[in-house]
Amino acid sequence: MSIRSRHEREGEPMLPLMDRDDVDAFLALEFPQMRHAGREIIVAEVRSGTAVLRFAPDERDLRPGGTVSGPSLFALADYAAYAVVLAHVGPVALAVTTNMTINFLRRPRPGPLLAEARLLKLGRRLAVSDIAVRPEGDDELAAHAVATYALPHERG
Amino acid sequence: MSIRSRHEREGEPMLPLMDRDDVDAFLALEFPQMRHAGREIIVAEVRSGTAVLRFAPDERDLRPGGTVSGPSLFALADYAAYAVVLAHVGPVALAVTTNMTINFLRRPRPGPLLAEARLLKLGRRLAVSDIAVRPEGDDELAAHAVATYALPHERG
Amino acid sequence: MSIRSRHEREGEPMLPLMDRDDVDAFLALEFPQMRHAGREIIVAEVRSGTAVLRFAPDERDLRPGGTVSGPSLFALADYAAYAVVLAHVGPVALAVTTNMTINFLRRPRPGPLLAEARLLKLGRRLAVSDIAVRPEGDDELAAHAVATYALPHERG
Amino acid sequence: MSIRSRHEREGEPMLPLMDRDDVDAFLALEFPQMRHAGREIIVAEVRSGTAVLRFAPDERDLRPGGTVSGPSLFALADYAAYAVVLAHVGPVALAVTTNMTINFLRRPRPGPLLAEARLLKLGRRLAVSDIAVRPEGDDELAAHAVATYALPHERG
């Protein structure tokens, strides 16, 4: 992994320290259940302050009718929030979600979903992001979440 | 299922309309993934304004170190909120979670968890409950959530 | 007030039914405390799916050091959420906040604040919006909120 | 103020370090707006893990019809969360709310309100509490909130 030093970039906190490939590889290693038995969650994009994940659900993620279940939408939002924090603080495996508020807005039609996480604040101790979940190729949100991560002590 | 009429009980909104066995049977039918491949979520208790679920996690629910993952804690809280609403409005399969806020408080030690959901409000259109999740035999909370369910139009 | 009929616009739910002047006049009438004793909250802009409020705080809104208090930031976010719902459903005085999650991100420097509320969903029964609060002329968020409003029965 | 040392009580984190009189005097000094122009918020009780505030609203807190406004309910919940944290960590003026989720459940009838804040977690960096708001002499909740406070670095 080609991870650039966080300390080179002190004044520009919203520049990613890891690129898409780095973040994807790190997550796949840490959370093998992201790609398992037909489910596929990949990091589709990392840019300043933002990470986008693409989620192809499998049977376990679906409710009757083909709609993705609430817990699977939550898991997707949680991975996306983790990805955007990871991309901007570097590979800190110990960051933990402390709080998530999720609103379920519309039952998504069957098919892949995109989750776009955006950093609202990257502090020394807490990172707050919001996450918009929508079906691929659709503008209407299926879910919206706001997540807080506690960052490890030794940071910054 | 021996479901008593909701209309007999108009003035006592916090008395359950379904008992533990009814709620457990209904959930098991609607959400087969609650008991599958080693995971077991059962309705342990239903009483006025309250439902308690017991969750024996399987491999899929665990993070390295044996702690239950955030999405599995979310799913448990969501089932518990559904159970307490179901118990008090009767078998209305269409109630949907619209909003959940969850705080992850302490990594739970390995083993079964109890989730106690308590109705804060049971209105005609919305039901709000809070959910306390703790390891069985432990007083310290692992997680705490507040959930809002939208109730179907034809209700009450 | 020149309020256009909601029914002309069925297929375009994100087009406002009231313009900036309408919304501002309605709010000022309904909430006289928005402009009182030095405090001034005005509707600065209404456009598709969005309303922006400008808040000039007075003494009551400040903590020692000149920073705006949490309850005043909450009130501002609540007015902004109300404004964007009002603008898009028409003058329905009975809409009520049912749920708000607010994250306090940075102490804002003294001076006016802007609150931009954006509709995430406008359903028949619930409207969900998020609200970004920042000091005027600054990109960094002071606070971020997500609000749910219950809409009156007779709507839609 | 007779504040006992926090360090005497390491193993008993839920025992208050300040009593009702201490907490009330500290809050009144720090937030003079709690008692001003007819509004009166007092600390009614402090016990293990819990603080209860009593709120007698004034004109500014009321909506037409005599019901307490959302921002005033938010402010009350925020003071109560602050009081329970303060009582258990000692007079740390720098603790700040980072996150609050509030559900408005029923319009309270006119008259004084009680807000009972309960610590869900008191960690080194974050304190999480929930707050139940009800009219004095009434069991039905008017509002329910969950609040997170960030604690100062130098703590414990």
What would you note in describing this structure?
The structure is a homotetramer of 156-residue chains. Chain A is built from 2 helices and 7 strands, in the order H-E-E-E-H-E-E-E-E. Chain A has helices at 20-30, 70-89, and strands at 35-36, 39-47, 50-56, 96-104, 113-122, 126-135, 143-150. In chain A, strands 1-2-3-5-6-7-4 form a 7-stranded antiparallel sheet. In chain A, helix 1 (20-30) packs across helix 2. The longest helix of chain A has 20 residues, at 70-89. Chain A is globular and about 45 Å long. Chain A starts with 19 loop residues before the first helix and ends in a 6-residue tail after the last strand. Mean pLDDT of chain A is 87; it is low at 1-12. Chains in contact: A-B, A-C, A-D, B-C, B-D, C-D. Chain C binds chain D through residues 33, 60, 70-72, 74-75, 78, 96-104, and chain D through 33, 60, 70-72, 74-75, 78, 96-104. Strand 4 of chain C pairs antiparallel with strand 4 (96-104) of chain D, so a sheet runs across the interface.
